[in-house]
Design goal:
This protein is of the alpha/beta class. The chain has 16 helices and eleven strands.
């Protein structure tokens, strides 16, 4: 371990090697992360729940497993999970008042697989309520702050997870990505975030937002770490009908290959006016570095890109409206029926008053938009039409990827903005997703890799791959990461 480096600052790769060589224990590693959470989370506000006793118990069990000769890259590695992923016996709120005290009776499949691998759950992280947002300002429990500048947002909706990884509160975190919700905060916080192919990692146990695009994925300090996590998560799940049968991944072999002969597409519609100069410069320097490493660049065209945002913001609210219908104040979650001053006179009163108080403004906005788009007389004009254009976007991206190994684009036109700067303008906030919705609508894998800074704030580049070809993203991202020092940069808190 480099002199002066704390245990919580280690990567998964580094910590796993030290655990295997008995230089450290999982209990020591977990205590270091818990101490870091206590030290900085009052400022960052990344965590909603910290399970200190449970984490130390899991760490002790991991050490016992290693003592018996068991091996595993995630055995004894501490992590945090986004709070819309169910965790048995640990509060899961989705950052909403309506689920403020909800405790799940079972683990999501991704949590179950990490438990089996011996990873240590430290707690749950903040997000935009029900993952509705791009800044983590829409949480019922207050915004998360970017560790690089506490006056700025960390991105969203997995902002708590990204901020926690960037601030070294954990060695990795889980997020979910519906339309950029892993990639955007990874970019804003200067770390790596992978949106897997839709169907690659199980959605069972996720609190659904947009069922046709939601996917859980890793947020990590390096591309190599992200590949280690993905290796554990990427398996078919009998409990998830959208989970696809895929061949066993070989990510560890992929990342050792060089970039000679690889072709990377640059979609001209993603390199438009309006991108901040510092962001554009960072992306261009990344392209030059990849050329030095042997990659060839080809310009491609994705003309339906301009319809990505309107299509996404018809399909997403429509599915949100359907998925949030289950939170009605009856079966679980917050209910006004328990309030003696609520004066309930009918079942409708329970529904209306429970949802009225339980949901925040953005959740209500999306429910109303979606209900309208799905209503009689408007379904064909809005939702059905959006699905047709979505198919065009998918076909277009698939066709472009026949000519190249992957696509490279910016993640965002700018670096992280100030907290409160855009919260009064929902439409401007929706436009944050302009470069990230395409891969989501097409169900393609995409990764955010740090590639520079603009005015002291991190910039990320996006790599989009063919369906189920996460390996190429890890290969390119790892080669680039090894040839640069961006992944080693740390915020000063």
């Amino acid at each position: 371990m480099p002199k002066g480096q704390e245990l919580n600052e280690l990567t998964i790769k580094e910590a796993s090697k030290m655990l295997e060589n008995k230089k450290i224990t999982s209990v020591e590693l977990t205590k270091a992360c818990l101490a870091r959470i206590k030290e900085v989370d009052e400022k960052v506000k990344a965590c909603l729940t910290v399970c200190e006793k449970e984490a130390l118990l899991e760490a002790k069990k991991a050490d016992e497993r290693r003592a018996k000769g068991e091996k595993g890259e995630l055995l004894g590695i501490p992590y945090l999970a986004k709070d819309n992923i169910l965790t048995k016996g640990v509060r899961t709120t989705a950052s909403s008042k309506i689920l403020e005290n909800y405790i799940a009776p079972f683990d999501a499949t991704v949590i179950k697989r990490l438990r089996e691998a011996g990873a240590v759950l430290l707690g749950k992280t903040n997000l935009d309520e029900f993952a509705h947002g791009a800044s983590t300002e829409n949480s019922a429990f207050g915004p998360t702050h970017n560790p690089w500048d506490l006056t700025r947002v960390p991105g969203g909706s997995s902002g708590g997870s990204a901020a926690a990884v960037a601030a070294d509160m954990c060695l990795f975190a889980l997020g979910t990505d519906t339309g950029g919700s892993i990639r955007c905060p990874a970019s804003f916080c200067g770390i790596t975030g992978l949106k897997p192919t839709y169907g690659r990692s199980s959605r069972f146990g996720l609190i659904a937002m947009t069922s046709s695009t939601d996917v859980p994925g890793p947020i990590a300090k390096t591309v190599e770490d992200a590949s280690i996590i993905a290796k554990v998560l990427d398996r078919q799940d009998k409990y998830d009908a959208t989970s696809a049968p895929v061949e066993k991944n070989t990510y560890e072999k992929e990342i050792t290959k060089d970039l000679q002969g690889l072709k990377i597409g640059l979609p001209k519609e993603y390199f438009i006016s309006g991108i901040e100069k510092g962001v554009e410069d960072a992306i261009q320097k990344a392209i030059e570095k990849l050329k030095e490493l042997g990659a060839e660049f080809i310009e491609v065209s994705l003309p339906h890109t301009k319809y990505g945002i309107p299509v996404y913001y018809i399909i997403t609210p429509s599915e949100v409206s359907s998925n949030l219908a289950r939170f009605d104040g009856i079966k679980y979650g917050y209910s006004e029926s328990k309030n003696p001053e609520a004066h309930m006179h009918s079942l409708y009163d329970i529904y209306a008053k429970s949802r009225g108080k339980g949901f925040g403004p953005e959740a209500k906005r999306r429910i109303m938009l979606g209900t309208y788009a799905l209503s009689a007389g408007y379904y064909d004009a809005y939702y059905l039409q959006a699905q047709k254009v979505r198919t065009k976007i998918k076909e277009e991206m698939d066709k472009a990827l026949e000519k190249v190994d992957c696509l490279l684009t910016p993640i965002s036109p700018h670096v992280a903005f100030k907290i409160g700067e855009q919260s009064a303008d929902p439409l401007k906030m929706y436009l944050e997703d302009i470069f990230v919705t395409g891969a989501s609508l097409a169900g393609l894998p995409a990764i955010s890799v740090p590639c520079g800074f603009d005015n002291g704030m991190p910039v990320g580049m996006q790599l989009i791959g063919k369906r189920f070809d996460e390996g190429i993203l890890f290969r390119i991202g790892h080669n680039y990461g090894q040839a640069t020092n961006w992944r080693k940069m740390k915020p000063k808190l």
